[in-house]
Design goal:
about 650 residues; Chitinase A, domain 3; five-stranded antiparallel beta sheet; four-stranded antiparallel beta sheet; 23 helices; about 50% helix
Length: about 650
């Protein structure tokens, strides 16, 4: 486990990286996740298990389930993967899992022991029947059968049925029982939740500035000319998300957000502009666009759902306090981070009320939760090392330091002399990723430097690149209303309705009713202006072909179908290409090198022979005209004693 005491202070020669990556997808890519309310408390308390439990291991217990090591009765697969014939061994993978995730997993093991000890002390149990009932309740909440719900968890979150029951449902139910009366929902709380969800709202535009004097000036101008509020928001507001669409925000609801803004909004009439509302260090001005009527929903229909949501919110709030009480009442020793204790208690990483948690337990739990993702990292590392060796390259300390300086300059982390402040950058990067210095270098710096070695001589910025970059950043843009749909037939029906009544107001009503994209639906079609070369050529072509007041045909972008109504165009900024040549050139180079690095990474992975014994899959090298496919291989058996 990468210990915090050894991690965060870099030596004099500090390796670096050009980006601060998301470790969930290693060094470059981002991952989309499905937000499932049932996971929130489990994740808070137990960490983020992503591995798959042993096939068929679905039993639950009224006691906190222990890690299933499996080593005592089942032979363990020593080779976890082969990459072009070169192996990654079990010991290496466990070490990698512990180094990357050991601290969080150890904390979760300690927390589970604490919960278990306290439940036993108070005579509380979570039975198999409790867990089965909660599983059925959660599936019903999402209008799914039990098997469908478990399959969704597996597909969207990588959480197996055994993990869900052991690491999420059990601690959640145990905490509910421990919290007891603290989770009781009062009539007043229920009334507030009902009013928030189904009560009236106010549609407003917003301007936010940090300078009080400027806020007063903008307010006077807006109050004098309310029709110009959208323009003023685009010109002055520091809230970039709303400024780009004329200050429009989601409707303000009761009992949510800043009370001063809520009071002002509900006291205003349509087209009225508020006084300056000071909220902390910022100053807000709102304009009422209209009032949203309450929805006619009977309390009896939604009472159970609202009570459940309130209880879950209360559980999240009391969890930290409850753990503080449990920890204060317990004797916990962190052995791993104490050199003296490590010598006197070999093989032990912590004790809870005298009961040891061993390194073997920690390693097995880390492997169970994170083995799959860490193995992908190790496979990628090995493929990169092989590619560097084949090309006759090596990543030197100088390369790593060059990456750091480059990253610091891009991020504006400079010292008083205007040079890259490497020490401060390392501190920022490791704190942001919550990793040790060694892991930051290994998982972020080195891969980026290696890929840059393999791709750097292929990238150059052309005159055409500069022209497109200038047009994208400083050229005119098309202001549009938009309706986004996921069904072609529905899109055709909506298009026909809009054609029969071509007004902007009716188009906004259609957006509010039919658009599946939350922002355009709640803002009645308002969307950020469309620019050229922004990455959506079909949409850009459709937008720039329109005249003010004209509606587009149906434009397909991926699996979505989009209707646009042109509201006009922005003006080209009065800036010459020569003035921004160097800035554009640097920005374009960074984007092109990142694309080249990503493509090279994908090429290396697809060109490799990868036998993954942890998942029981095998990938053959890609053919010249296609991508490698992952397949089940009868000669590659899933590792026993791991899942």
């Amino acid at each position: 486990m990468a210990r915090k005491d050894a991690a965060k202070t870099p030596p004099e020669r500090v390796p670096a990286n050009t980006v601060v990556p998301d470790r969930r997808r290693w060094w470059l890519a981002a991952s989309a996740t499905l937000a499932l309310g049932a996971l929130v408390v489990g994740r808070l308390l137990i960490g983020n298990p992503v591995a798959e439990a042993a096939p068929g291991d679905t039993q639950t217990s009224h006691r906190a389930p222990a890690t299933q090591a499996g080593a005592a009765t089942t032979p363990q697969q020593e080779v976890m993967a082969l990459v072009n014939g070169q192996d990654i061994r079990r010991e290496t993978l466990i070490q990698g899992c512990v180094e990357r995730h050991g601290e969080g997993v150890l904390e979760s093991l300690v927390n589970k022991r604490l919960i278990d000890h306290h439940c036993r002390k108070r005579g509380l149990t979570v039975t198999d029947a409790d867990i089965d009932a909660e599983l059925d309740r959660m599936a019903k909440r999402f209008k799914l059968g039990r098997e469908q719900w478990l399959e969704l968890l597996e597909q969207q979150r990588g959480v197996s049925a055994a993990e869900y029951q052991r690491d999420i449902l059990w601690p959640t139910l145990a905490l509910r029982k421990l919290a007891g009366s603290e989770l009781v929902v009062s009539d007043a709380e229920l009334k507030k939740a009902y009013e928030t969800r189904f009560g009236p709202g106010v549609q407003v535009r917003l301007i936010v500035v940090s300078d009080a004097q400027k806020a007063q000036q903008v307010q006077r101008e807006a109050a004098a000319r309310p029709a110009e509020f959208a323009r003023l928001a685009m010109q002055h507001s520091e809230d970039i998300n709303s400024a780009s669409i004329g200050g429009l925000i989601q409707p303000i609801r009761l009992h949510v957000g800043e009370a001063a803004i809520e009071r002002a909004a509900f006291s205003m009439q349509a087209d009225e502009v508020s006084k300056v509302i000071t909220v902390g260090p910022q100053h807000a001005i709102i304009k009422c666009e209209g009032h949203v009527p309450a929805r006619n929903v009977a309390m009896a229909q939604v009472r159970a759902e609202l009570e459940e949501e309130i209880r879950e919110g209360k559980l999240r709030e009391v969890a930290n306090d409850l753990f503080a009480k449990l920890q204060n009442a317990a004797t916990i020793q962190n052995v791993y981070n104490d050199p003296r204790l490590r010598q006197s208690m070999p093989g032990v990483v912590a004790t809870v009320n005298g009961e040891p948690i061993t390194m073997q337990e920690l390693g097995q739990e880390c492997l169970l939760r994170h083995g799959k993702e860490v193995l992908e990292v190790e496979v990628s590392h090995l493929a990169l090392r092989q590619a560097l060796q084949a090309a006759g390259y090596s990543v030197t300390q100088q390369d790593l330091e060059s990456e750091m300086r480059h990253a610091a300059r891009l991020a504006g982390v400079l010292d008083s002399a205007g040079e890259a402040d490497m020490r401060r950058w390392v501190q920022m990067a490791t704190e942001e990723q919550d990793v040790s210095y060694e892991l930051y270098v290994r998982d972020s710096v080195w891969p980026s430097a290696a890929l840059k070695k393999l791709t750097g001589d292929r990238v150059m910025v052309t005159d055409d690149d500069l022209k497109k970059g200038y047009e994208a950043n400083y050229g005119e843009r098309v202001r549009c209303l938009a309706i986004v749909m996921d069904d072609l037939r529905r899109a055709q029906e909506v298009w026909d309705k809009a054609r029969q009544n071509p007004s902007a107001e009716y188009f906004g009503e259609l957006a509010a009713e039919y658009s599946i994209e939350p922002s355009s639906r709640s803002l009645r079609g308002e969307a950020p202006p469309v620019r050229r070369y922004g990455g959506q050529p079909q949409l850009e072509e459709a937008a720039f072909a329109l005249s003010p007041g004209e509606m587009s045909g149906i434009t397909q972008v991926g699996d979505k179908f989009i209707l646009l109504r042109c509201e006009g165009r922005t003006e080209t900024l009065d800036i010459e290409l020569a003035e921004v040549h160097d800035v554009l050139s640097q920005d374009i180079y960074e984007k092109k090198i990142r694309i080249a690095m990503s493509e090279e990474f994908d090429r290396l992975r697809s060109a490799a022979r990868i036998d993954n014994y942890l998942t029981g899959t095998s990938q053959a090298p890609a053919k010249a005209e296609g991508q490698a496919e992952s397949r089940k291989d009868t000669a590659v058996r899933q590792a026993s004693g791991v899942r």
